Amino acid sequence: xxxxxxxxxxxxxxxxxxxxxxxxxxxxxxxxxxxxxxxxxxxxxxxxxxxxxxxxxxxxxxxxxxxxxxxxxxxxxxxxxxxxxxxxxxxxxxxxxxxxxxxxxxxxxxxxxxxxxxxxxxxxxxxxxxxxxxxxxxxxxxxxxxxxxxxxxxxxxxxxxxxxxxxxxxxxxxxxxxxxxxxxxxxx
Length: 188
What we know:
- Belongs to the flavoredoxin family.
- This protein has 188 residues and is mostly beta strands.
- It is 14% helix and 38% strand.
- The chain is built from 4 helices and 12 strands.
């Protein structure tokens, strides 16, 4: 029998994405978010939710753009750091020994060492309680060659993305492949 545990921000899995912005002085900044995901397929869009108190919030509002860099497992420490430190107080890229790369399509930086990046133009923002949900149209996805499959798409098993467990506030890796979507559920 299921037991009620109350209303909580709990869903599985949630990503550990690093959102890149420029501050008002053009300094690259990044922060880790877990309240995020795909929100539309046409046009291709993602949403990320940030509190107004974050330094990155102002960067998104000012530049009307952001990037999402997807860290692989080997960068879990750096991804966590981007969520702990504030760009107000320090240069996060420098402290993490990572490279800010200027997007050619949107006024926002991304993490050069992370295998996949989404470059997004801000389409909408919606106040949702403590957070503001920013919807960004994906203008381009850039991926390292080594994470691409035979069809030229990013392969989750090659990327080895970091996911976040909201209940116990821990990071996880992706598990094994369970089957092909839109196929294994066919009940012939």
